[in-house]
Design goal:
This protein starts with a helix and ends in a 6-residue tail after the last helix. The chain contains 5 helices and no strands. It is mainly α. It has one domain (3-36, 43-171). It is 81% helix and 0% strand. The protein has helices at residues 3-32, 48-62, 65-87, 91-127, 134-171.
Length: 177
């Protein structure tokens, strides 16, 4: 039965690919069109704030329903695999899979929360007059750095789980008939 493996492999692959595409292609493309901070915006450019708003909107769309469904599907697959491992007498494997399930769900929840906080901080910064912007700018920078780190960690965790599942699928013995 390959179904529980596929419930981890397919959404895990889509999850990692989506995160990489956003980080490597979308962010770099948007910010390449924006001038350096404090530089004048040319007629064919967007401001860094506008690039940030656009990327933040894309990120929130991705981390909304699509990624939540991928996370849910991956967690169902991990739970199913844990049940199969427990029935096969592999309690340590089952425990590790359940721990991965819980860690992934909590990590995803925290990542979404921090991404939303970055958006809130960006809005606060945009409303602040330039002479009073130091505190909101620092809060934004802290939240932005934390969101980058969480997205990278989440992507790494999903990548490891996906590769581990692929290896387990390849190494498992075919069912006896």
């Amino acid at each position: 039965m390959n179904a529980p493996y596929l419930l981890v492999l397919i959404p895990g692959t889509a999850w990692v690919t989506g995160n990489l595409m956003l980080g490597i292609i979308a962010a770099k493309t948007l910010f390449a069109q924006a001038p350096a901070p404090m530089a004048a915006v040319g007629p064919d450019q967007i401001s860094r704030a506008m690039a940030g708003d656009l990327f933040g909107s894309m990120l929130l769309q991705w981390y909304g329903l699509p990624l939540t469904l991928l996370c849910l599907t991956t967690c169902i697959g991990l739970g199913w695999l844990a049940g199969l491992a427990k029935r096969a007498g592999k309690r340590l494997t089952a425990g590790a899979l359940i721990a991965a399930f819980v860690a992934l769900a909590l990590l995803h929840r925290q990542t979404v929360h921090v991404i939303q906080e970055v958006g809130n901080q960006a809005q606060q910064l945009a409303k602040t007059p330039p002479e009073a912007a130091e505190v909101p700018r620092l809060a934004f920078q802290r939240a932005h750095l934390q969101s980058e780190q969480l997205v990278k960690l989440e992507t790494l965790v999903v990548l490891v789980l996906t590769i581990g599942t692929a290896v387990a699928l390849v190494r498992r013995r075919p069912p006896k008939t």
